[in-house]
Amino acid sequence: MTCLTISSALESAVTILAAAGVDNPRIDARLLLCHTAQIEPATVISDPDKKLLPEDVRTFEELIERRVRREPVSHLIGEREFWSLPFKVGPDVLDPRPDSETLINAALKLIDNRSREISVLDLGTGSGCLLITMLTELPYATGVGVDISERALSVARINAEANAVSSRASFLKSSWGELVNERFDLILCNPPYIAISEFENLEPEVSQYEPEIALCAGDDGLQKYRELASEVFRLIVPNGFAVVECGRGQLASMVEIFSNEGLQLRERHTDLGGIERCGVFGR
User: Residues 65-83: what's their mean pLDDT?
Assistant: First the structure.
């Protein structure tokens, strides 16, 4: 790729990505070009003949080569949007997914007064997207994000600072709630729920570049729910709620596991694709 204008660089990149079998090659190429050259998407349309700096062309070439190897765009630019908020991401955390915004919608519907003090626990916080998003929506809420990975917690702390909620968020290294000794009004959790046998069939962007520990959950994909059920019961206040994500066709199994520990399903919510994506539980 020796192109020096926006349009020629873009078209060359689209051709390369399409030949490599990358989905949505034009979208990816445009995102990477805008990131590299520090230009707005509108500029790609309004000024296609604008010349690119040689160093930007070299960087763009490198990013396209990495995308050909199926490295996610979010990793290449270092950021993923969730709930219209920016989140730093990378190989140490699961990328925030639009499907997980279902949990935020479900949780906010449970809160009739957003100006009251609410305590939030995010089990398996990863990038911190669930906890941080809730704290941006609830100005008087405080929360704790828990993760077994210290590297993930480092990312979550950066994201809390970037989204101006670090004064109301704390982060703790723990296996689920093992080291947590208080109860919370609201518990959020997006646990691993992929069966080990399904992992290799995931798209390369996921299986090769995202942490397996944040994805896999035993032979049937339900192991983490079994670990979580008693913890959620212990950590939730009597009138509190837990909002827990699940995969396609898993809600009934999750409800059975949780009910065996004294948790009752209060609500179920579907994502934009019509898949049952989370359950709301209470004691």
Answer: 97
Q: How many domains, in total, are found in the chain?
A: 2
Is residue 232 in some structural domain? yes
Q: What is the mean predicted confidence (pLDDT) over 219-246? A: 97
Instruction: Mark whether 222 and 266 lie in a shared domain.
Output: yes
Give the span between the Cα atoms of 65 and 90, in whole angstroms.
18
User: Which pair of tokens denotes residue 36?
Assistant: 């590299």
What distance in Å separates the CA atoms of residue 14 and residue 22, rounded to the nearest whole number? Answer: 9
For the record, the structure tokens of 131 come out as 């906890």
pLDDT band at residue 3 using 50, 70 and 90 as cut-offs: low
**Cα 133 from chain centroid?**
11
- Render the burial of 16-29: b for 16+ CB within 10 Å, e for the rest: bbeeeebeebeebb
* Of 229, 220, 216, 219, the residue nearest 176 (C-alpha): 229
212 by DSSP, 3-state: which? helix
User: Six-digit token pair at 212?
Assistant: 């397996």
